[in-house]
Write a structure and sequence with these properties.
The complex is a heterotrimer of chains A (305), B (363) and C (263). Helix content of chain A is 71%, strand content 0%. By secondary structure, chain A is mainly α. Chain A has a domain of 187 residues: MetI-like fold. Chain B has two domains: 220 residues, P-loop containing nucleotide triphosphate hydrolases (Rossmann fold), CATH 3.40.50.300; 130 residues, Beta Barrel (OB fold (Dihydrolipoamide Acetyltransferase, E2P)). Chain B has a six-stranded mixed beta sheet with strand order 6-7-8-3-9-10, with helices on both faces. Chain B has a five-stranded antiparallel beta sheet with strand order 13-17-14-15-16, with no helix packed on it. A four-stranded antiparallel beta sheet of chain B has the order 2-1-4-5, with helices on one face. With 263 residues, chain C is mainly alpha-helical. Chain C has one domain: MetI-like fold. Chain C contains 14 helices and two strands; from the N terminus they run ααββαααααααααααα. The chains are: A mainly alpha (305), B alpha+beta (363), C mainly alpha (263). At the A-C interface, helix 2, helix 4, helix 5, helix 6 and helix 7 of A face helix 1, helix 2, helix 4, helix 5 and helix 6 of C.
Chain lengths: 305, 363, 263
């Protein structure tokens, strides 16, 4: 590129060619997040290894991690958390893509109606799902009235069930509109001429979807599913109120250890919490890396700078 | 430094991350003058405009406007006004509010600024549009409002950045006329940045031609056409005929032995150029001087002219644009008359090669 | 037609969980297997709106906390969004990633670390402590939305205003902010709702003393009074719904929402 060509990209810049200004502008937000999130993690780590805290003699100890990793309960909970988060994220991703495509051609009223669950608090959704799906819930009553079941015992267990169907139903109900909103915005940003061009070059609608729309949608899909996975994996109240009674998900395990009367359990709780963070960070990194390699490099995440 | 300069740009230099964008630029603008800063896209003319407007800080150099140095003066206190390519009317304000925007910032009271804005709107032939929203305007109307918004604050220097390039061809000449008319009425000094040489020629008293961050020639449009400083400038203005010669004052000796006479004396090896529309084609050798026997190798009708490709027995190739009425057919022999005042030459050693400029002309 | 029917079915399904909530909130003794309640009552709602009721207090606390954390997030999110949306600088990707971490990584460990400090500062179980912790998810969302808003903002408007005589402050208030206002509404909407709906963060640092509406709903869900729970649940939805309807036009702002699709 000639110097001239490079300058061509210098748009009407309006005093924005100085990078120290950029750092100054992000400083407040960045320092607050670093202080709260990073500081919190740091303090949690110090507590988990016994260097800081209510109990212990202030010397370095990895006992909490040993206890956390040594219990079979941890591994069962991890399995359950992964099962719920992965299944729900995958399902809501696929369904959201479908819904976004369906909504693209529909009126604005439809997209708006589909987004109405977005601002609803999770706890409200939980209450609704409980009153809808529990053995004495509305659906059970409907089936009884229709004569399909003769007592509430006949209704399949859908909340606090071993398969966590209630939990996943809730997450799908809440996260599909969220993902759809994001995907729809990305979808609307894709120029329709591209699909027309593909069709003109001989692509069937199905090929057009796989070869053009989906690749263009991919960054949006990666981002949205990332947020949804991270959220579900770390969520507490939904599996706490709707999930199986045993095993429980990792966040609930952390909570139980944290509120244990035995104060020694507190460092175990923190160790568990840090493991939870570590696992989600690694999974996200793995996902980004597998995703395409592109976002991985662009974000300078991990090793390669 | 001339005493007459109204706006003087001295030694202006700007680099972006070490890459020079504008190098040691000197330019003077006279009071009431229309100056065009012309160059291919990416040549640094927009950067120059931003430096003049104060939107970028130069690495060195200074700008003096009406005797006042503008070093370190923020854009809002430079007494200049800027009209950008897309007009950029503030979408949250009505047309009237847009025009009154600058007056409001200057603390002009409501009644006064509204009166001035209305008068200015009338001047750009948009009376009655004051309560419209910018979204309801056509591209040409928006551009006129943008012009009114800049002129109403009576700037000492009006800066126009590609003011016509976003408009349709037929709107363009209306807009050109309006700008020229408003400039004549207000007497505002005007600097217009453009990549379109025909636009620069129509709009400016003088043209400053810029390539790769440096000024190449500052002159009247006529001079840039007839007397370019080098082949790059000539090519940028549509020059197509170039040939080598040895100059001895008014005599040009061509490689094939032909001699031509020019009104513009030179010495030594030179490159000669002549505008294609200045070559006359004659069926018979009526006058004796500067006449070359040629064969017509190509003929193309463009609607207003006939473009002919010519070749002399010595192998010299020329292009001539002749009136459409003159009918010459391919293969026919004729005589090309190259008038002495149209033959312009510059030392051939001086020609820097600039493929960019040629590419721009082609695109 | 098929598309329309399908959409209506999907929308109906999405609305389904609200049905028992609405009915329960005015039903008395609605036992299995009755499909519709035999008797209506206003008792649950009377309990909710009774002067000095815990629900009303929680409503007020939630409102204050959400408003404060939204305002704070906006204050730091506006400059950060501008830098991330308009400027190119080394380390931008890493900074974006750091800002994103609080919304994709479980906050549990962080919370336990923060609580340790808040206890020593005397902020544990106070409104200020809760607001501070609510910044964890609100700042990232706000910054992402605003960076996308700024990325779609033409800085030519600012150059134009400067040349017409506006100082940087005047440009900010008279040009930039009015022009990006729809995007700011979307960002504020997201931040407000995230704070309003937040349970876990309040649960950990509120120490049982800061009783936001979600805390009250959580307690009620663990009790057995389904009618009251339903009434509280419906109450929790009202402001979010009003806010959403109020800014329904802003939510159509693809540029702003698209910001979440490009993290």
């Amino acid at each position: 590129m000639t110097p001239a060509a490079r300058l061509k990209n210098a748009r009407w810049a309006g005093l924005r060619d100085v990078s120290w200004r950029a750092y100054l502008l992000v400083l407040p937000a960045l320092s607050l997040v670093l202080l709260l999130f990073g500081g919190g993690l740091g303090l949690a780590f110090l507590q988990s290894v016994g260097l800081l805290g209510l109990t212990g003699d202030g010397s370095l100890s990895l006992a909490a991690y040993g206890e956390a990793l040594g219990s079979s309960q941890f591994w069962r909970s991890l399995g359950l958390s992964l099962y719920i988060a992965l299944t729900t994220t995958a399902l809501s991703t696929v369904l959201s893509i479908g819904l976004a495509l369906l909504l693209r051609g529909a009126g604005r009223w439809a997209s708006f109606a589909c987004q109405l669950t977005l601002p609803i608090p999770h706890l409200v959704g939980i209450a609704g799902i409980l009153l809808l799906l529990s053995p004495s819930g509305l659906i059970s009553r409907l089936l009884y009235t229709l004569g399909w079941i003769s007592t509430d015992q006949d209704f399949p267990l859908l909340v606090n069930d071993p398969a966590n169907i209630g939990v996943m139903t809730h997450f799908l109900w809440k996260e599909i509109p969220f993902m759809t909103l994001i995907l729809l915005a990305v979808l609307r940003g894709i120029r329709p001429e591209l699909a027309m061009q593909a069709r003109a070059l001989g692509a069937s609608p199905w090929q057009c979807f796989w070869q053009v729309t989906l690749p263009l949608l991919q960054p949006g899909i990666v981002s949205a599913s990332l947020i949804v996975f991270g959220f579900i994996f770390g969520n507490f109240e939904v599996p706490f109120l709707l999930g199986s009674t045993y095993p429980r998900t990792l966040p609930i395990l952390v909570y139980q250890a944290f509120t244990n009367v035995d104060l020694n359990q507190r460092s175990v709780a923190i160790a568990l919490g840090l493991l939870l963070s570590l696992i989600s960070i690694s999974l996200i990194a793995l996902y980004l890396w597998l995703g395409s390699g592109q976002p991985f490099r662009r974000r300078n995440f991990g090793g390669q700078r | 430094m001339s005493e007459l300069a109204y706006c003087a740009i001295q030694n202006l230099t700007k680099r972006f991350r070490g890459v020079p964008a504008v190098g040691d630029l000197w330019l003077e603008i006279r009071r009431g003058e229309r100056l065009a800063l012309l160059g291919p896209s990416g040549c640094g003319k927009s950067t120059t405009l931003q430096l003049i407007a104060g939107l970028l800080a130069p690495d060195s150099g200074q700008i003096v406007l009406n005797g006042r140095s503008l070093v370190g003066v923020p854009p809002e206190r430079r007494e200049m006004a800027l009209v950008l390519q897309r007009g950029l009317l503030f979408p949250h304000l009505s047309v009237g509010e847009n025009v009154a925007f600058g007056l409001k910032l200057r603390g002009v009271n409501r009644a006064e600024r509204e009166a001035q804005a209305l008068a200015m709107l009338a001047q750009v032939q948009l009376s009655g549009f004051e309560n419209r929203r910018p979204a309801e305007l056509s591209g040409g109307q928006a551009q006129r409002v943008a012009l009114a918004r800049s002129l109403v604050i009576r700037p000492k220097l009006l800066l126009l950045d590609e003011p016509l390039s976003a408009l349709d061809a037929n709107l363009r000449s209306d807009m050109q006329n309006l700008i020229l008319q408003l400039q004549a009425e207000t007497g505002v000094t005007m600097l217009v940045v453009t990549h379109d040489q025909s636009e620069a020629v129509v709009m400016a008293h003088r043209i400053a031609l810029m390539f790769d961050g440096c000024l190449r020639q500052v002159d009247t449009p006529e001079a840039l056409y007839q007397q370019p400083s080098d082949a790059t400038v000539a090519r940028f203005f549509g020059g197509v005929n170039f040939f080598e010669a040895i100059a001895e004052q008014h005599c040009l000796r061509l490689s094939g032995g032909n001699r031509l006479t020019t009104d513009h004396p030179q010495h030594g090896p030179v490159q000669v150029t002549i505008r294609p529309e200045r070559i006359h084609l004659l069926a018979e050798p009526i006058c004796g001087i500067n006449l070359l026997p040629v064969t017509i190798t190509q003929s193309r009708f463009t609607g207003t002219q006939r473009h002919l490709a010519l070749k002399t027995p010595t192998g010299l190739e020329l292009q001539a644009w002749v009136p459409p009425g003159q009918s010459f057919t391919v293969g026919e022999s004729a005589f090309a008359h190259l008038p002495a005042d149209a033959l312009w030459s510059f030392p051939s050693a001086n020609e820097p090669s600039l493929p960019d400029a040629v590419a721009i002309r082609g695109g | 037609m098929i598309r329309r029917t399908l959409l209506i079915l999907i929308i109906a399904t999405l609305f389904l969980p609200f049905l028992p909530l609405l009915v329960w909130s005015v039903a008395q003794g609605w036992y299995f297997p009755q499909l519709v309640p035999q008797q209506g009552t206003g008792a649950h709602w009377a309990a909710v709106v009774a002067p000095g009721s815990r629900v009303l207090q929680g409503f007020g606390q939630s409102l204050v906390i959400a408003a404060l954390s939204t305002a704070l997030a906006l204050a730091v999110g506006l400059p950060a969004g501008r830098a991330l949306g308009l400027m190119a600088f080394p380390g931008k990707g890493a900074i974006k990633l750091v800002l994103l971490l609080p919304i994709i990584v479980s906050p549990l460990a962080t919370l336990m670390g923060i609580q340790f400090v808040l206890i020593r500062l005397g902020l544990n179980g106070t409104l200020a402590g809760v607001v501070l912790v609510h910044l964890l998810p609100t700042i990232p969302y706000m910054t992402l939305v605003l960076s996308s808003v700024y990325a779609n903002f033409d800085t030519g408007y600012e150059a134009q205003a400067r040349s017409l005589g506006a100082t940087p402050t005047q440009v900010l208030w008279q040009v930039t902010l009015p022009l990006i206002a729809p995007g700011i509404v979307v960002g504020a909407l997201f931040a407000f709702l995230i704070s309003w709906n937040e349970f876990l963060l309040t649960f950990f640092v509120g120490g049982g003393r800061v009783l936001t509406l979600p805390m009250i709903l959580f307690t009620s869900l663990q009790g057995g009074n389904q009618g009251l729970t339903a009434a509280i649940a419906v109450t929790s939805v009202i402001p979010a719904l009003i806010f959403l309807l109020f800014s329904s036009r802003a939510l159509q702002d693809d540029a702003a929402i698209g910001g979440l699709g490009d993290v």
